[in-house]
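tool_call predict_complex ligand=magnesium ion
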Amino acid sequence: MKALIVDDAKVVRVALGRIMNQLGFESIEAADGLQAIEQLEEHPDVDVVMLDWNMPVMNGYDFLITMRGMSQFSSSPKVVMVTTETSMPSMLKALAAGADEYVMKPFDKDMIAGKLNIVGLECSA
Ligand SMILES: [Mg+2]
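tool_result ok
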């Protein structure tokens, strides 16, 4: 399985990439929403996007709206928001825009594995 990790902080991409690899995913990265769109066009077989909200150039919410508006990505891949933006209005807004689950930073491997299972992705925890 393949994960696209989208976060402007390299340290987060590295930490999350390590966890995803441990859970049996191949991972690719993007530092903002625009790069994430480019990665998806190059790798349309991505199973899950791990998505930060606050990023320069194109934030996670705008990426979500853009991606779900593309016919081939309207219902897949799964999207797990990984963010500090966890107020109820923000969460509802992201879920309405097509996010599947939410992980609050800071995260750990068990939290990530749990959310992946909730969205129906079997992972080798
Ligand atoms: Mg950020």
